[in-house]
Amino acid sequence: MRISLGKVVLLQWALAATATLLLALWGGLTGRGFAAAWSLLFGAACALVPNALFAVRLWIDKVLRRTPNPMFFFVGEFLKIGATILLMVLVVKGYRDLVWWPFLLGLVVVLKSYFLTLFWLK
Asked: Coil, strand or helix: which one is 65?
């Protein structure tokens, strides 16, 4: 059975939004709870944005019926890692109210969501 990259990316967005909403409700929407919810969302976005762009690029190749190129895949993965690190640095430098544990939790939620697709998207 094949799982489309689009479904995986949508699941990642759904998990990030759910985790952010739960943290916002648990921590409150004022003060540090608000900053923690934004930190989780920013952490998730650091991995989500490069994943979504990579998935769109692969989808375009599929629609245009291009022959898959393994070298592009490896270069794309390398660029995805670089973009994730760059986004993390931008968030750390630019968001003054960053709360580290939700930021890292957002990253983990997105990066480990691949395992959940094995169970949910059958």
From this structure: coil
